[in-house]
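As a warm-up, study this chain.
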Amino acid sequence: MEKQRMPSELDRRLTSIVARLTAPGTPFEIGFIERGGANLPLYNRAPATLPALFDEFCAMHGDAEFLVDGTVRLSFAEVHDLARRVATGLLTRHGVRR
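Now compare it with the structure written out below.
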């Protein structure tokens, strides 16, 4: 059995920060959904799909740097455009389906 330790100052601060970030009414508000008899946590205000989350996040941050590789710097908007072009190519030219 693992011995319990007292929370450090850092533990207390992180717990406080997470509580504020996930509080009711915040973008990261936590809720629960029952699946298979278990209550699972989820973000109440999260977009329904990963593509929707990507769209929303890229729209929010537009011209801010997103990816950096040496001298290559791409904004959220540029990455979003490239991702959409790749997705379209996969659908139209390679028969990939959702």
